[in-house]
Specification:
It contains four helices and nine strands; from the N terminus they run H-E-E-E-E-E-E-E-E-E-H-H-H. The protein is an alpha+beta fold and 228 residues long. Strands 3, 4, 5, 7, 8 and 9 form a six-stranded antiparallel beta sheet that branches.
Amino acid sequence: MSITRRSARRSVRILGVASASAALALGVAGQALACNISEFSAEAKCDGNKGTIVVNDQDPSGTPATITVFSKNAAGVEKQVGEPQEVKGSVVGTTVTFQENWKPNATYRIHVKAGDQVDKDIKNDLVTPSTACKKEESPTPKPSATPSPSKSTPAGSATPTPSASESSSAPASTPSNAPSPAAGDSNLAETGANSNTGLIAGVAGALVVVGGGAVYFGMRRRGSNSGS
């Protein structure tokens, strides 16, 4: 069966359309696998009491990229944060962390360099939260220690103790020049011999004798009366 010219032209046309479709599909697939700046994101986080800046690379092609972070002050002056870090993206995302004690509402610029595909900053600068990772607490003043009263006795209030030299130098008792009482006088004073004790004893003895005689004579008289 011979192929006509018209059929040949149709075949060539179909092949051309198929080739164009294949090229378009390959181009779309290539663009889908290529690294893109939109696949990078950054976030300010807290690691305990310390601040961090985390950059996420969600590039399915896994193209190696270099991340550099810069802090920006109000005047627009930039300062690099730490050292650039390498990252290789993935479908689920791969992260790199920069240690940075950021302040509230601070601004950072994140630059991405991935081969000859990306050499750009992440769209929109990163602005940190309005609350720091750790609030600065004012130190609580410590109460001043109240001095306790001293228990020691003041030196001036102590009663002075006479020294040995002072006690030894005290004058001895001076003997009196008055005549001492005689030994006899002192004995008489103690026994009462110089008083009226003897006279009183004699009168008492006489009264006892008189009383005894009266009792005796009374008893004899009573006996004689009973006999008669």
